[in-house]
Design a protein that fits this description.
The complex is a heterodimer of chains A (663) and B (195). By secondary structure, chain A is an alpha/beta fold. Chain A contains 17 helices and 19 strands. Chain A is 55% helix and 17% strand. Helices cover 31% and strands 23% of the residues of chain B. The chains are: A alpha/beta (663), B alpha/beta (195). Chains A and B meet through helix 1, helix 2, helix 3 and helix 4 of A and helix 1, helix 2 and strand 3 of B.
Amino acid sequence: MRVPRFRDFSLRVKLTLVTTLVAGVSLAIDCAAILASTWWGSRTTSVYDLATRADIVGSNCTAAITFNDRASAADTLKGLAADKYMLAACIYGRDGRPFADYRPQGATVVIPPQAGEPQHRFDGGKLTVLRPITLDGETIGSIWLAWNWGLYHSQFLDLTGIVFGVMVVSLGIALFFATRLQRVFTQPVLDLVETARRVTLSRHYTERARKHAQDELGALTDAFNEMLTQIQERDVALREAYDELEERVRQRTEQLNEAKERAENADRAKSEFLANMSHEIRTPMTAILGFSEMLTEPSLPEPQRLNAVHTIRRNGEHLLSILNDVLDLSKIEVGRMTVERILCSPAGVVAEVLSLMRVRADANKLSLDCEYQGAVPETIQSDPTRLRQILLNLVGNAIKFTKVGGVRLIVRLVTGEAPMIQFDVQDTGIGMSVEEMDTLFCPFTQADTSHTRRFGGTGLGLVISRRLAELLGGTVGVVDSRPGVGTTLRLRVATGPLDGVRTIKNLSSQMLSTADQRTGRSALPGALNCRILLAEDAPDNQRLVSHILGKAGAAVTIVENGKLAVDRALSAEAEGSPFDVILMDMQMPVMDGYEAAGLLRQKGYRGAIVALTAHAMLGDREKCLRAGCDDFTAKPVNRTKLIEVIRAHTTPQPLAGPGVGAV
Amino acid sequence: MSVRPPIRRLCWIGAACAWAVPSTAARAETVDPIKTAQVKAAYLYNFAKFTTWPNNAFADESAPVVIGILGVDPFGETLDKTVEGKTVENRKFLVKRLPPRSENDRTALRSCHILYISESLQSRWGSILELLGDAPVLVVGESDEFAAAGGMLSFVLSAGNIVFHLNRDAVERSKLQLSSKLMKLAKVVYPKEKS
């Protein structure tokens, strides 16, 4: 087993040992010094004493020596008997020979026969001293004394013993005090050690070491406590940071989960949408193709033929509206849908909507009216086309889902920082349940899929309406709906700045009559009586359009592409029988409509050119007009609209009203 | 005695030495006149060593100790030889043989420091001593009667040895001081103690 090294002893032991060692060493040195000095001191003193005594006795014998009185001298020496440690004495004469001596009883000391030089000697336990006797400066003899130093010797040993004993006792006391007092040093250190150990084990940094005094150990304790405080703070900060991090991670995860869900939902919705769309498209296609097939049967009875045709037409129209809606929705979804911001009259739009819907309302024996609450601005900055689209959708739905009663359109201005114009569409229809309300604005959910079959429609109208409303700076929402009572839907659109805009009250009757007038006008039948040049490459369309226009009383000339159209138009003009209207399909091989129109205008052609375009986007309209067209109409062709457009460009301009561009 | 040696006082010894103890040393009887004279001369000389004169007894520091011989001179040149070159307290000796009839001359008498009065003038001892009075003169003579008569010291032949007797009163009366060491060597001391 290895002997433990001193420096590995405990502090307590070390301090005690060191203190005791120091005390012991100094005590030992002191005692040694004392003993040594006592030893030498006593020797010196003894010699001095003895020599002095010799001198005194000697001087007392001067007379005896001088007068040769040995008896007297011996007698004087006898006086030395008083000192029981005096071993012997002898007086020598001038010749150095003994004159008188003193020898106590039992003395074994040998008196030197001849006096030597004055000196002192320690011989064993004996101190001898030889001193001259002088009289009046003259040495007349000498005196020799022998003294027992042994006693002093033994007493010196006693002293040594006592001193040693005292030293041991002192050491003992020193040890005792050291053991006690070392606590002054070790207690703070031990406390510190203990605290440190506890803290390390428990990892609770709230503990602090106790400070005992304002010395270096106190400073150490302070520093230690300071460190603990720092650790504690850091610990707390760490914990907080950790918690915060955890919270953030949780939040992020939640957000990500939500986003994932939303993405998944969107994905699912899109898949559903596609599935639905596919279904919605196939359904009418099936009918169209089926009934078309049926029509090829040669021996089909007439009523059935008619029915087939009507079915085909109806499905075709339905398919068209689905396609339009899908296209609209797609455009909106990819953010390609743009809306205008032009001045338009809300009252005018409302009037148009009502006149367009009146036929259907009348057919269902439902009332249809509108109410203006308060003053309404004369014009607003918005997109009249889209506004009309939304209102047509809302009112159309209202009519669709109402069996008895009617539909009312309530218009009012909502003032505020961002003023809005509000259209409430109230019906006394079948109403909706809460679940139905939730899914109202989702694509292809007409509250109930059975509705689609019963009530028609694409199921996309409200979705589109809502999106368009948002694009117009507003919203569409359900105000109230109770099954069996009715529904109120609310549209709001932003009006834009209204500074300096006149407001009008009591509009209802006025505008209505105007609208009626216009509607009436546009409903006027009449032959076209004009020459039309049709530039169209698709044979079916050629047949269709020429059939429509021919039926309306126009003379139609067909060309296949833009180049031919330009040639024909110019030659006709040159011949003096120009065409009244050129109906230009914009997509044609060899030369398309834009180029042809442009070329014609370049060549100074001033006749009316109406574009026939499949693109209904706003930009395209402008494009056509820029290319040189005067107007345009969209494909698929609508007979009424087509005739209207032709008529517009073959008869004088009608009265001012909202934009006549047929959409 | 429980007093330890290093602390012991030495007055002990002094006290012990103060006791006068008569010597009883025995010697062979030889009455050699020259030897006797030598011894006496030596005594005279040595007496000076144990005598203290008052300051005014000497004219100055170099004044010698005058040994006056009154009457018959027993020493001869022995005394002169004995004291030749010797000093006591740095004073030389001067031996003066006083002329006859000096016993009447107070001045002459008082001019000595040590005065030896011979036996021949025994009848005049009284008047001489009277003339001296308390003068600081060491009066030395011979025979016991001399001391008894008032002489301070006197040589006495005893058992073949020269010893001396002492008259303390005489010493005390004068202005001399005699060392106790000397006095205690005296064999006989006057006045004798009345028992």
